[in-house]
Design a protein that fits this description.
By secondary structure, the chain is an alpha+beta fold. The chain is built from 2 helices and 4 strands; from the N terminus they run E-H-E-E-H-E. It is globular. It holds the Pfam family AsnC_trans_reg.
Length: about 80
């Protein structure tokens, strides 16, 4: 299982609705509004890196109000 944090920038005033919508996507385990350079941070999981990429590109980035995402896979050393 691959876990990742997805850092999300939104249009002004859209962070709350984006977080609520993203949290409903299967594979997203948590999404919260934050302050700073990103507006929402989500945690996601998928069976593989390819599946994670598909989740982000086809589902997360399709949410209205998102302007940019940065996906950070979790690593274990």
């Amino acid at each position: 299982m691959v876990h990742a944090y997805i850092l999300i920038q939104t249009e002004v005033g859209k962070s709350s609705s984006v977080a609520k919508e993203i949290e409903q996507i299967p594979g997203v385990t948590q999404a919260e509004d934050v302050t700073g350079p990103y507006d929402v941070i989500a945690r996601a999981e998928a069976a593989s890196v390819d599946d994670l990429g598909k989740l982000v590109m086809s589902r997360v980035q399709a949410v209205d109000g998102i302007t940019r995402t940065l996906t950070c896979p979790v690593v274990h050393f």
